[in-house]
Amino acid sequence: MASKSDAVERAEAYYDSGAADAFYQTIWGGQDIHIGLYRDDSEPIADASRRTVETMATLLVGIDATTRILDLGAGYGGSARFLAERFGCRVTCLNLSETQNDLNRKLTADAGLTDLVSVVYGDFENIPEPDDSFDIVWSQDAILHSGNRTRVLDEVRRVLVSGGQFIFTDPMQSENCPDGVLQPILDRIQLSTLGSFGFYRDELGACGFEETKTEDLTNQLRMHYWRVGQALKDRYDEAVALSGQTYVDNMIKGLQHWVDGADRGYLAWGIMDYRLPA
After folding, report:
1. Mind giving me the DSSP string for 202-240?
2. What class is the 6-275 domain?
3. CA 80, 82, 84, 89 torsion: positive or negative?
4. Which stretches within the chain are classed as H helix?
5. What pLDDT is recorded for position 2?
6. What is the model's pLDDT at position 3?
7. Cα–Cα distance list, 47 to 28, 31, 217, 225, 251 (Å)
8. In this structure, what are the phi and psi dihedrals at residue 140, rounded to the nearest 5 degrees?
9. Per-block average pLDDT, block size 10, for the chain (278 residues)?
10. pLDDT number for residue 189
C-alpha cells in the first residue's frame, strides 16, 4: 500500500480513538455520521442524517442489482447498508478506521447483508481497487480529511467506469471566504485548507467530469453542528463518562466554531452530483 499523507494518518488515529468512537456512535448519529437534512430544529440527529442518505439515493442513475458502488470514507456503513437493502446492489466500504470497520462488519452481518456489502481498510488517496471497477462512487463528508484532495478526485476518476457517477457531500469554505478566518476550525480538525464548490467544479472538470447538479444546503451544515452541540450539552454527563471531559469540552468548542463560521458566511455544504461521459 502506498504511504499515507499526514492528514490521512491524523484522521485515522482520531477515528480509531475510543473517545471519538463513543461520541460518534452515541451523539453524532450512530450508523450515519455525516451532516443531516433537518425538517426542524428538534428533529433527532439520526433521522436527519438518514434523510441525507435517502435524498442522495434519489439522484442515483440506473441503479439495480448489477450496480457496483464504492463508498469513500464509509464510517459505520449506514449508507452502504441502506443502498444494498434498497437496491440489491453491491457496495464496497472503503474506510481508514478499523475501529469503525469492525462495527460496520458486525452491523452488516446482523443485517444479513455480507453478500452485498464488503468492508475494506484503506484511504481514498490510494484506493486499493483496479481501474474501471465501479459504476458509482459515493462519499459523505469525508474528503475534507485529505491532505491532497486533487489526488482523491484523480483516484475517483480512475476507479469509475465510463458513464459513471460521482455523488458526494463535503464541509467546505464559501467562495468569498476571507483568508485566515477559518483557522479555529482548521486547527481543530488539523487541516490547512477546506475545499469549495468552485474547487470541486474546477478539479472534476479537469478530470473529465460533467456537473449534473449541485445543491447548496449550507443552512443544513449550520443546523447539524448546532444540533450536535445541543445534544452534547443535553447529554453532557453521559458523554463525559464515555469520552472524557477534555474531549467533550473541546468538541463543544469546536462545534461552535462551525456554527459561527456558517453564520458569518464563511462555510458551505451541499450535495454534488457529477457524471463521466459514456
Report:
1. HHHHHTT-EEEEEEE-HHHHHHHHHHHHHHHHHTHHHHH
2. alpha beta
3. negative
4. 6-16, 18-23, 45-57, 78-87, 98-110, 149-159, 183-189, 197-206, 218-234, 236-243, 245-263
5. 61
6. 66
7. 11, 11, 17, 15, 22
8. -130, 110
9. 72 85 85 94 94 98 96 97 98 95 96 98 95 98 94 98 98 96 92 95 98 98 97 96 95 96 98 97
10. 86
Judge whether 185 and 251 are in contact, CB under 8 Å.
no
Helix (H, G, I), strand (E, B) or coil at 151: helix
Cell numbers 468512537 correspond to: 21
Are the C-beta atoms of 169 and 272 separated by less than 8 Å? Answer: yes
Cell of 84: 444494498
Q: What is the Cα–Cα distance from 219 to 228, expressed in whole angstroms?
A: 14
Residue in the structure block whose three cell numbers are 476550525: 185
What residue spans define the domains of the chain? 6-275
Question: In b/e form, how buried is each residue of 45-68, taking b as 16+ CB within 10 angstroms?
Answer: bbebbbbbbeebbeebeebeeebb
- Residue 229 contacts residue 252 (beta carbons within 8 Å): yes
Q: How many alpha carbons fall within 13 Å on the CB side of residue 7?
A: 21
Cell for 263?
453564520
CB 271 within 8 Å of CB 213: yes
Per the rule left: phi > 0, alpha: psi between -120 and 50, beta: everything else, 73 is left
* Per-residue pLDDT, 243: 95
CA gap 108, 129 in Å, rounded: 21
Residue 259 identity (one-letter amino acid): V
φ and ψ at residue 162, rounded to 5 degrees: -60, 135
pLDDT of residue 147: 84
